[in-house]
């Protein structure tokens, strides 16, 4: 029977504290535990031996990881919410629609926000709205809990210490009123991994932009934002200058050459600026 | 395989309580097929890409190759064998919406969920949901017609 080639134990803690304590205990016993949220990455990579674990800790029954709603002026996103649930809640369309660019609808009934942000795939489109809004993340680990803006925690990947669990993200509700654009460009079929995704909002100080599929990691660049917001300069020139300041080389892989990606990025950026400078709120 | 890695699973499948002895690492797809003989959910890519393995879990379409059997404990699992003369089944026959038929159970489960959860689905929603399933025989036109019949949009 083709399946995950190695056995593992399955745990289903009821609280954040229990999950972290389990991790510490299993880790000490050499079980190489993994938090298991949607589990799609652990299952698909486990099947081909690219992920190994002897114990998974399913966080889907932990109420804090499943919370969704508003609290103290912020939307609360439990890390174990599926991308479909976030989309269907229609609380914050920028997050719902950008997350809906991941995979396909049925897979998004399983893929979670936390798994997408913490996983090892490089696209992680759902992180873009969190970067644009510098949403605070609540993290629990063996050393206790901490909350910090994602800008301080996410650098190419989410910087988690051993045994740390992403519990929630929080987004200031005022961002829901800002005009936004989220544009996923694919090369092949409509459900392919993205060639690239640009997500942007127009905040008080100007347009903020975050990218996935441009470099080998998702990012928001304030340096590029400064350049792109100089409205006295023609858009084409701003875009060329901004592209020269990308934080890393443009991806060059089977999905698209660096040259092709650069071309698509130019076009997408041009349209994004045009739409947001006109002030239209569009998805 | 160490004995400690085998557990007794109690699942709720097609309205019945079923038990299986399986590893926590076993996929829902494999337990349905191998332990319960419910072979309607088809293994295609086993990678979440094709949708042939789609079942309903608490009424939502789910790719059973992306789910551990143990995860579904306490939830209602429905396979194509659990459907009784659904509109989607009739529409597939009437519209000739299959050739080899391998993708058919997955499509039908997804359409049944769509018609129950989003009966007023617009074209965008229909497209978004249906992109989860692939038909290698490219019966898309007929499948599209069947969906529109089910949703009363002929
Ligand atoms: C058919 C298909 C298509 C896909 N298409 C895309 C795509 O277009 N774009 C894209 O970005 N990805 C895509 N993916 C990849 C998918 O988004 C990632 O695999 C996603 O990260 C998995 O989410 P999950 O909830 O299933 O994660 P899991 O498998 O549960 O976890 C992934 C990793 O993150 C860790 N983790 C999970 N939750 C937490 C947490 N709360 N705290 C700390 N660590 C945690 C786990 O330990 C594991 O290492 C696709 C996957 C499939 C199956
Ligand atoms: S076998 Fe599950 S999606 Fe292809
Ligand atoms: S009918 Fe053959 S795969 Fe769809």
UniProtKB/TrEMBL annotation, chain B:
Its UniProt pathway annotation is: Alkaloid degradation; nicotine degradation
- Ranges for the 2Fe-2S ferredoxin-type domain? 7-83
CDD domains xref list: fer2
* GO-annotated molecular function: 2 iron, 2 sulfur cluster binding; metal ion binding; oxidoreductase activity
**Record-linked InterPro entries:** 2Fe-2S-bd, 2Fe-2S-bd_dom_sf, 2Fe-2S_ferredoxin-like_sf, 2Fe-2S_ferredoxin-type, 2Fe2S_fd_BS, Beta-grasp_dom_sf, Diverse_Oxidoreductases
Keywords attached to this Swiss-Prot or TrEMBL record, sorted alphabetically, are:
2Fe-2S, Iron, Iron-sulfur, Metal-binding, Oxidoreductase
- Could you name the domain of life of the organism this protein comes from? Bacteria
The answer to whether UniProt assigns keyword Phosphoprotein to this entry is no
Name this protein carries in UniProt: (2Fe-2S)-binding protein
Q: Tell me the organism.
A: Cohnella nanjingensis
């Amino acid at each position: 029977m083709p399946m995950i080639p190695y056995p593992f134990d399955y745990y289903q803690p009821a609280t954040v504290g229990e999950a972290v304590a389990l991790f510490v205990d299993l880790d000490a016993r050499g079980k190489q535990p993994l938090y298991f949220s949607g589990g799609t990455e652990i299952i698909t990579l486990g099947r081909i031996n690219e992920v190994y674990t002897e114990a998974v800790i399913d966080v889907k029954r932990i109420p804090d990881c499943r919370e969704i709603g508003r609290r103290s002026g912020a939307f609360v996103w439990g890390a174990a919410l599926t991308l479909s649930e976030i989309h269907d809640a229609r609380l914050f369309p920028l997050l719902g629609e950008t997350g809906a660019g991941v995979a396909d609808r049925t897979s998004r009934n399983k893929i979670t926000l936390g798994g997408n942000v913490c996983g090892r795939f490089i696209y992680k489109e759902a992180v873009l709205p969190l970067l644009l809004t510098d949403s605070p993340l609540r993290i629990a680990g063996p050393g206790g809990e901490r909350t910090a803006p994602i800008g301080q925690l996410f650098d190419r990947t989410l910087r988690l210490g051993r045994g740390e669990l992403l519990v929630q993200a929080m987004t200031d509700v005022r961002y829901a009123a800002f005009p936004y654009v989220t544009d996923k460009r694919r090369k092949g079929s409509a459900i392919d991994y993205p060639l690239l995704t640009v997500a942007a909002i127009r905040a008080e100080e100007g347009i903020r932009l975050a990218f996935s599929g441009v470099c080998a990691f998702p990012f928001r660049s304030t340096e590029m934002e400064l350049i792109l917001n100089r409205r006295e300069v023609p858009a084409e020139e701003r875009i060329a200058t901004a592209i020269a300041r990308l934080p890393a080389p443009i991806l060059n892989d089977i999905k698209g050459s660096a040259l092709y990606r650069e071309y698509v990025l130019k076009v997408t950026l041009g349209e994004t600026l045009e739409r947001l400078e006109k002030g239209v709120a569009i998805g | 395989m160490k004995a400690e890695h085998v557990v007794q699973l109690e699942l709720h499948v097609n309205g019945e309580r079923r038990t299986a002895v399986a590893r926590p690492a076993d996929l829902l797809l494999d337990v349905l097929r191998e332990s319960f003989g419910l072979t309607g959910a088809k293994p295609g890519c086993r990678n979440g890409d094709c949708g042939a393995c789609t079942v309903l879990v608490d009424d939502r379409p789910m790719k059973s190759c992306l789910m551990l059997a143990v995860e579904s404990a306490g939830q209602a699992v429905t396979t194509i064998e659990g459907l009784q003369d659904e509109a989607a089944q009739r529409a597939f026959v009437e519209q000739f919406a299959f050739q080899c038929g391998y993708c058919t159970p997955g499509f039908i489960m997804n359409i049944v969920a769509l018609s129950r959860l989003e009966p007023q689905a617009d074209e965008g929603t229909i497209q978004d949901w249906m992109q989860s399933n692939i038909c290698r025989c490219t019966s898309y036109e007929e499948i599209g017609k069947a969906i529109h019949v089910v949703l009363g949009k002929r």
